[in-house]
Amino acid sequence: MIQSDDIYITPIVNKDFRGVRIDKFLSECFADLSRSRLQKLIESGNVVCDDVTIADNAYKVKEGESFVINLPEAEDALPQPEDIPLDIVYQDEAIIVVNKPAGMVVHPAAGVSKGTLVNALLFCCRDLSGIGGVKRPEIVHRIDKETSGLLVVAKNDNAHRILCEQFAEHSIERTYYAFCYGVPTPMNGIIEGDIGRNPYDRKKMAIVQRNGKRAVTHYQVVESYGKVAAKVKCNLETGRTHQIRVHLASKGNNLLGDKVYVKSKKISDKKIADEVRKYLNEFPRQALHAQSLGFIHPVSGERMIFERDLPEDLMRLQTVLRGI
What we know:
Layout: E1 2-3, E2 7-9, H1 22-29, H2 35-43, E3 47-49, E4 52-53, E5 68-70, E6 87-91, E7 95-100, H3 117-124, E8 138-139, E9 148-154, H4 157-168, E10 173-181, E11 188-192, E12 195-197, E13 205-207, E14 216-225, E15 229-236, H5 243-250, H6 274-281, E16 288-296, E17 303-307, H7 312-322
Parallel strand pairs: 9-16
Antiparallel strand pairs: 1-2, 2-5, 3-4, 3-5, 6-7, 7-9, 8-9, 10-15, 10-16, 11-14, 12-13, 14-15, 16-17
């Protein structure tokens, strides 16, 4: 297990703990955190397994799972509503689908208590229920701060539970578009490689031989820009933390703008204008967009699919690449 001032990472659940309540399992792992505090951390959305928030203390852990606990700084008990404009794609009494901009954190955490998606949702959603009567949006899954695109948020416990089950079963449809260095070979295929915490850098994920989780990405090159870069469509069969970024990097096709999984050799072709090379090599955020999201509605049982085109910064990036 790993501990620091703001993050705790559990060991992999073995067969001895299979089926144990998550609050009990976490209390067995970390003696310095009381069970009551762990329960509050779970309820407040600070316990994550891969990209899925575990917000139910009665959740039964499964063999092979590992959990990350984010310890927020001492502050007010609840995030505060903030009048932040949101691109709301759809909402009803049970769910809200949002097109998150790049640069917005999904959930308050250590050092980030304002300006998050949760703060914005608390302001714009007046029909939240939530755990124990506390009115807050239930985060079902997350996308990275610097990734743009679609995510679904539950407005009540029942919707949250049903959507989490779909994520756990990998029945959610998620399509991303990424701009990467070079052109993946072959032009379409499947990347498989268990993903786990990087043993040398806890802030990174990596393809690992042991203690990882099955991860499968289906990809297709939809545009190539000479040998310089490519636009790649990625469909997630599984949803592991940083999955697309790690999988494409494993092929040598790191995302443009990725500040964590950095490409060691960037674009150096002298045939490309200096200002264009500089723009591409210094793109300010990872070039990744969650373009479509499909799931079964937790109340109606209807199959729903939502799409949002590339945001303005990635459209400009695409235009620049097409001009090479």
